[in-house]
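Sync notes, pocket subgroup
Present: LS, DG
LS reminded everyone that the earlier model was apo-only. Rerun requested with calcium ion included. Inputs:
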Amino acid sequence: MALHPLVNIGIRAARRAGNVIIRSLNRLESLEVSAKGRNDFVTDVDRNAEQEIIDTIRRAYPDHGILAEESGASGGGEFTWIIDPLDGTTNFLHGFPQFCVSIAVQHRGRLEHAVIYDPMRQELFTASRGQGAQLDDRRIRVSKCKGLEGALIGTGFPYRANTRWLDAYLGMFKAVALATAGLRRPGSAALDLAWVAAGRTDGFFELGLSPWDTAAGALLITEAGGRVGTLTGADYELGGDILAGTPKTYTALVELLAPHVPDDLRPAR
Ligand code: IPD
Ligand code: CA
Ligand code: CA
């Protein structure tokens, strides 16, 4: 099936950013690193990769809006590109080979297209609303996992400002560790979500994320037959807390985590 033109531009942008990232790997020592905040590093690689993406989009669609991690929001109109030029910067800085480029396109506030590119494995995940999800040119589906037993669950540990949820999180961690085959913390939320879509993990949860961490991954999962929402099972919103999985693993996780969800993350009554 032919890819949508917006997806083709997204792929071109993601591959260019991936090249910037890979070229920088062998000069990790000399990278200029600045801290945005405690435990939050941004490098000239993040910025250069983001510029490549924005230039590629602007050449094709000069009037589209952009929401990008390093440079913020610009432009307007019906279309918005949501961009994380390098998801997993901490991994990247250590040469720990788990990071990606994440690009999503919203039309009138609804997620329509997703591109996630893993430049180490050269794996390309794509999805368009109603058209399914692909890894390279193969169709992907979430796993057949029927709940918690035997499930492999991805997660992200709270850090930075999110450490206020650490105790609540440790309660969730313990509950999941006791009920499933195990937890993994690969360190790139966008790629973690793509791996749920590809059936490599059966579910995922994390607190305190940003729109660019989850937008593309969320569409990939729903197009791969999975479910995505908040920790309490409410509809997915850009950013914030996220829970995803195969339909049955998702429902089971909502129930398992319910007693541990911090008050400020419960829907107002
Ligand atoms: C981070 C990664 C990480 C997640 C953090 C994110 P960044 O993104 O996705 O897995 O735990 O919450 O901020 O800063 O490397 O783009
Ligand atoms: Ca990110
Ligand atoms: Ca980033």
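DG: The pocket of calcium ion (ligand 3) is lined by residues 46, 69, 84, 86-87, 89 (CB under 6 Å).
LS: The chain has two domains: 5-140, 152-260.
Action: DG to write up.
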